[in-house]
Every structure is written in structure tokens, then in C-alpha cells.
Amino acid sequence: MSRKSEKAVYEIGQIYMSGMNEQMSRHFETVIKLRFDQVSGIVSVVSADNNDKEKLYEELVYRAQVRNFDYLALCSTEGDFQTLCGQSIQPLNPEPFVEALVRGEQRVALGSDPAGNLVVLFGVDATAYPMQDGSMSTGLIAAVPLEYITDFLSLEDEE
Length: 159
Known about the structure:
Elements: H1 2-45, H2 53-66, E1 71-75, E2 81-85, E3 90-91, H3 94-102, E4 107-112, E5 118-125, E6 139-145, H4 146-153
Antiparallel strand pairs: 1-2, 1-6, 3-4, 4-5, 5-6
């Protein structure tokens, strides 16, 4: 009887943990999708038809800040980042990130700022924005500190 009870408790624990993993995974996917939707929303509401670059950049920054992004940058096809707000950011593995943007894909990646703080980058297709050097962007990158994601998912919670 003792072994059967032990086995039942183990099986219940397995079922519970499996359900928790599934729930955590869905929660993570939802958070990432929400943030991608927010970055895509910036691109959809900020027209590149504005001939005044500074006004265009101000509008992009404003839209990013109301969505609580701490960093915003344009990315060229060569992988050069033009920071619009926050500190300069760079993906930890830039080649696949930039290649995905050039192909018009969305991409999430880990990056860092000059102080070495880890950030989560959300890159979306944005080929219509002019960059300071006269070239056109291939993507818009918004980022939040990694702590935002861990706090949102309560990954540091001891329970």
C-alpha cells in the first residue's frame, strides 16, 4: 500500500509539473507575441512618408516609449544599428538576427548594451525608414531588459 501511495504521489507530481511547464510555455509565447505585435504596431502607425527625419525619429521613439520599450533602433542590411532611444544595443549573435530581418522575418534575440546588461531584442521588418547615413532600414528593433521578461514570467519567484 505504501508503494502504491508513493507511486500515486509521484504520478500526480509528474502530471502537475507537466501542466505547469505547458502553462509557463504558453505564457512565454503570449508575452513574446504581444511584444512583437507592439513593435509591428509601431511600424504600422508611423508612416515613412515624413520627409523630416528628426520628426520621424521622434514619432518612432514616442510610440516605443508608450509601449514601455527601453531601447529602439533601426537596422541596416549591413547590420549597422542606429540607436533612436536608450543606449546602443547589439545582438549577442548578430548575423542570424540581421539575416532574418533582411528576409522580412520577425526575430527575437538576446543582446546587450554597452554596460553589459542583457536585453531582449524584438526585430521586425521595416524597410521604409531612412537612416542618418542616407540608406534605408531593413528592420526596426525594440528591446526591453531581460529582467522584464523574467519578472513578467516570475522566473525568479522561489515558489
